[in-house]
Amino acid sequence: xxxxxxxxxxxxxxxxxxxxxxxxxxxxxxxxxxxxxxxxxxxxxxxxxxxxxxxxxxxxxxxxxxxxxxxxxxxxxxxxxxxxxxxxxxxxxxxxxxxxxxxxxxxxxxxxxxxxxxxxxxxxxxxxxxxxxxxxxxxxxxxxxxxxxxxxxxxxxxxxxxxxxxxxxxxxxxxxxxxxxxxxxxxxxxxxxxxxxxxxxxxxxxxxxxxxxxxxxxxxxxxxxxxxxxxxxxxxxxxxxxxxxxxxxxxxxxxxxxxxxxxxxx
Length: 266
Ligand code: HEC
Ligand code: HEC
Fold this sequence. Notes:
- Helix content is 40%, strand content 2%.
- It is mainly α and 266 residues long.
- Helix 2 (46-58) packs across helix 6 (142-154) and helix 8 packs across helix 10 (252-263).
- Bound molecules: heme C (2 copies).
- One heme C is lined by residues 57, 61-63, 65-67, 73-74, 76, 82, 86, 103, 106-107, 110, 113-115, 118, 128-131, 133, 148, 196-197, 207.
- The site of one heme C (HEC) has 27 residues, from helix 3, helix 8 and helix 10.
């Protein structure tokens, strides 16, 4: 059997095993959340609010892009008690007084406390690589942020101190009308949040390779790196970290503007 065949068989096994992992390997929210879309609005129950938070956490918030088992960001388990510990940490210099306030601050002033070992390289854990999730490409509104906090506090059996707001905008309601295509390479970078992970177009993400001098690799390489990130994995970085769905989301024009921008970065 050739190596290639072995790799293919191995990949298929991994794909087949994944649902089992999801079923048995990942702790489930218990009891399972009610359907989310159904009754968003004034009469929402706390369970629905928390389920909405989970949906935002997994989808619009893109939290699981970084907070996953690859180890580039902490796993966010037991966040109610972890948050209380952070407040007592001698390195904590932020303004939060309660667990809820700590989690809120973690999402919008991400450098107020940087979990040891996860800071931007060379910053001695004073600068967080996590973007402010209330702005930029993620852009969660205050109610969405609260829903995510309620989810983080309760998902491992903790209590939430939040109350359900009287009117919650449906998660991703604004996304229903497709965003207008970007007009420049820099706009494409903003729209798709590349700067959350890369040094690119004036942004300074630190979770992926620095792209400020990537131009020499040539346009074909760069195009492939965006549409099929796992095809070539940059040295020193893990496969699976960069999102693989840009090929479905980007217009052809956006992709070319982005490739042009990177090709000129030398
Ligand atoms: C681009 C990667 C990235 C994204 C996206 C991201 N985070 Fe983070 N986050 C990190 C890293 C790295 C840390 C550790 C450094 C720090 O403490 O800021 C962190 C820290 C945190 C902490 C503090 C944890 C602790 O133990 O004190 C919380 C809470 C958190 N993130 C929540 C979120 C939520 C909620 C989202 C989605 C709305 C999110 N993050 C999206 C990378 C990310
Ligand atoms: C959640 C973090 C994350 C986001 C968001 C992200 N990337 Fe990446 N990217 C990575 C990581 C990690 C690697 C290295 C592993 C790999 O090559 O797959 C990478 C690799 C690359 C490479 C190859 C670099 C090299 O040295 O070979 C390019 C080019 C690239 N990304 C461009 C982009 C562009 C453009 C966007 C936005 C449309 C983007 N990335 C969004 C994390 C991210």
